[in-house]
Amino acid sequence: MASLLELKEIFRSADAVCFDVDSTVIREEGIDELAKFCGVGDAVAEMTRRAMGGTVTFKAALTARLGLIRPSYEQVQKLISDNPPQLTPGIRELVSRLHQRGVQVFLVSGGFQSIVEHVALQLNIPTANVFANRLKFYFNGEYAGFDETQPTAESGGKGKVITHLKEQFHFKKVVMIGDGATDMEACPPGDCFIGFGGNVIRKQVKEKAKWYITHFDELLKELEER
């Protein structure tokens, strides 16, 4: 078990940093925003609460929530244009600093590719570095399900992404930063987990994470010390 000092050293010398997106890189939960936009916000928020309690698998919860929302292609695009995701304060500066140091930055999310790619664009992260769930649509734009083959569609998916990145790029040290249990579970294979509570504090993560922050400035300071 690494100490806090060892975790900080791993972060400062990391080859790659993976960020969760909902309630971490952005202030909102994408699926809840989409549900509100489609008029089923309360019902889906209740499902999300149950899913966070760990009584159902991630894929089952995602299937149920999307089955209730049934977003069309047009609705997803309109959500992004009318209510674009709000970046968490400090994230732009942190990603920019990591890029300056030659660190690869990835967005690894249980949210939706189209929304996450919009976020990646704002942070100068290549879309090839985005791992998220893909919504499927019929030719007329109606909802047709989601791509169940994506690793992020399942419990434990973020860890699978990190394993894939280590195999593909031969990264020695990969850091995972996020607000939720699925982020914490990705370490191992990730080498360091940093819990983030700047938008929402999840009790289980705050209690169990060896390194827990509430503002990205804390990580910027760590990088300045070297």
From TrEMBL:
GO CC entries: cytoplasm
Record-listed E.C. numbers: 3.1.3.3
Cofactor: Mg(2+)
Keyword Metal-binding part of the UniProt annotation: yes
Reactions catalysed according to its record: O-phospho-D-serine + H2O = D-serine + phosphate; O-phospho-L-serine + H2O = L-serine + phosphate
Example of a GO MF term: L-phosphoserine phosphatase activity
CDD domains according to UniProt: HAD_PSP_eu
Sorted UniProt keywords: Amino-acid biosynthesis, Hydrolase, Magnesium, Metal-binding, Serine biosynthesis
Pathway the protein takes part in: Amino-acid biosynthesis; L-serine biosynthesis; L-serine from 3-phospho-D-glycerate: step 3/3
Catalytic residues in the record: 20 (nucleophile), 22 (proton donor)
Catalytic EC class: hydrolase
Family listed: Belongs to the HAD-like hydrolase superfamily. SerB family.
Name assigned to this protein: Phosphoserine phosphatase
Gene that encodes it: Psph
